[in-house]
Design goal:
The protein has 10 helices and 4 strands, in the order αααααββααββααα. The radius of gyration is 23 Å and the shape is flat. Helix content is about 50%, strand content about 5%.
């Protein structure tokens, strides 16, 4: 029952809407086989990307690892947090002194639990530098970096002054919705910083003509 709720099978009508092979792909046996393999996989039940069930499944899969990593962190007076596949350990001078050996221990636990560690993404961020996790500055408390807020404010201001298309350089049909999402993200982290952005976003909507669908 759980598998049925968390997986889906792509219908034939949706699979048939996949883009046709390019001219070059018609003469590339490996590319054609890859397309055929993808279509076969989509016709069978599989985990969709970005489903709302994904975090719960990830938590179930990581439960044993989380327990062991939390215990390892507690042994050196640190705190362990995880967001999806990003692991973070926060501590004081004791963790800093043991950072190198602690890194080896963490990697060993993750591997024993069936996961792979991307060693290129491991960072030791000390108090005197900007500490960032999942796009947030976390030195004193979680906060959206000022450069990010200022960038979004500049985009919104330019939309009010020059129109939506002046900033939509990728011609994204969901560009206004993406601005809503970015402002909502900032509002979720630091509501005070989002007040001005909300006013600018309202002005953007007022200045943007509604979409029209031709009929007849």
């Amino acid at each position: 029952m759980l598998t049925g709720l968390c997986t889906l099978r792509v219908s034939a009508s949706v699979a048939s809407s996949m883009p046709r092979p390019s001219f070059a792909e018609h003469y590339d046996a490996a590319a054609l086989e890859a397309r055929a393999r993808t279509r076969r996989r989509l016709r069978h039940r599989h985990l969709p990307q970005g489903a709302p069930t994904s975090p719960a499944l990830a938590n179930l899969a990581c439960y044993q690892m989380d327990a062991r990593l939390a215990g390892a962190a507690g042994a050196v007076g640190a705190n362990y947090t995880r967001y999806a596949d990003d692991l973070a350990f926060s501590g004081d001078a004791e963790l800093a002194r043991r950072a190198q050996r602690f890194e080896v221990l963490i990697a060993a636990i993750a591997i024993e639990e069936g996961f792979r560690v991307n060693h290129r993404k491991i960072r030791v961020m000390r108090q005197g530098q900007t500490q960032r996790l999942v796009g947030l500055a976390t030195n004193e408390r979680a906060n959206v970096p000022r450069a990010v807020r200022e960038r979004i404010e500049a985009i919104l201001t330019n939309v009010v002054r020059h129109g939506l298309e002046s900033q939509n350089r990728e011609r994204d049909p969901q560009f206004l919705q993406s601005l809503h999402a970015r402002v909502a993200w900032i509002e979720h982290v630091t509501p005070a910083h989002a007040r001005k952005l909300r006013r600018l976003l309202a002005a953007c909507e007022a200045a943007t003509p509604p979409a029209r669908v031709p009929t007849g």
